[in-house]
Inverse folding.
């Protein structure tokens, strides 16, 4: 234990000693990639969607091979639910007193959930200078606050009726409650969590453009440690509702529908976010260091500290 404490004290002393020659830099980057939220659906297919990241950050370089950074990120992530689904109610009575089976189909159902987050990242970055570029390796954590959560749904609802005694299926007869209708909706996601913790990592390069300006390119990965969506206590059952007059042969798709995430086919217990992609941007070095080492003499302006 004493050895670890001694190493920690020496490390802190080296940081304090290096502050007189420390650099300060600022990053502005933007990235696009792929994101997904790991909820499960029992009957529709869940997939990922496009993700985007915009980052503004400040870095403190106490030594030539390391920096400490803090910033502000704006991140948009998404997921998709798509496919076909069918529900059937047996022994429904029509206005003539006949029993039949009423079926509701969701056809070519596409639902896009989009989440926008404002994040505060804190990171530790390691800098490995080479002959022409500097290799950047960064790890850190973020706290994210939800600033927007929307869902866009489109598809077709199809109502059919099957009369077993005659082996007859009725369709596109609206006067009897069997019809096809387009469905379009845009709603707020009620189940989105207000605040979440994330860990992230980046790996890339910094290419010198001038003595103080660098072009940077990073591969990044962001993973949430807490669930993005809250579990719904009483999820709605996907189905039909009778009209306001209570006529048994006229049915409508559930008017209270906002998202599949609010229904009984969604499992939100492990709704972790994953966002990966490529970001490009610039780094501006505010102060020139007084450090002197052989690498900087051989390759001037190749290291972020030179």
């Amino acid at each position: 234990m004493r050895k670890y404490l001694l190493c920690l004290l020496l490390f802190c002393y080296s940081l304090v000693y290096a502050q007189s020659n420390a650099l300060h830099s600022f990053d502005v980057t933007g990235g696009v990639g792929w994101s997904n939220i790991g909820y499960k659906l029992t009957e529709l297919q869940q997939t990922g969607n496009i993700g985007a990241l915009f980052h503004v950050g400040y870095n403190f370089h106490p030594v030539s091979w390391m920096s400490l950074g803090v910033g502000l990120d704006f991140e948009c992530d998404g997921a998709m639910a798509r496919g076909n689904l069918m529900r059937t109610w047996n022994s429904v009575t029509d206005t003539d007193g006949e029993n039949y089976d009423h079926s509701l189909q969701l056809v070519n159902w596409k639902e896009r959930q989009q989440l926008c987050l404002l994040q505060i990242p804190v990171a530790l970055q390691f800098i490995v200078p080479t002959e022409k570029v500097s290799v950047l390796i960064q790890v850190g954590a973020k706290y994210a606050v939800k600033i927007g959560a929307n869902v866009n749904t489109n598809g077709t609802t199809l109502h059919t009726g099957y009369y077993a005694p005659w082996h007859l299926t009725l369709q596109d007869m609206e006067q009897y409650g069997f019809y096809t209708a387009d469905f379009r909706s845009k709603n707020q996601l009620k189940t989105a969590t207000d605040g979440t913790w994330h860990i992230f990592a980046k790996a890339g390069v910094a290419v010198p453009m001038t003595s103080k300006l660098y072009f940077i390119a990073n591969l990044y990965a962001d993973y949430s440690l807490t669930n993005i969506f809250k579990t719904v206590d009483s999820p709605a059952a996907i189905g039909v509702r009778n009209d306001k007059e209570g006529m048994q042969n006229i049915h409508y798709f559930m008017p209270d529908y906002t998202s599949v995430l609010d229904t009984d086919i969604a499992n939100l217990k492990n709704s972790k976010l994953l966002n990966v992609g490529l970001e490009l941007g610039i780094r501006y070095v505010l102060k020139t260091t007084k450090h002197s080492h052989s690498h900087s003499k051989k390759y001037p302006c190749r290291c972020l500290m030179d």
In short: The longest strand covers residues 99-129. The radius of gyration is 28 Å. The domain at 21-298 is CATH 2.40.160.20 (Porin).
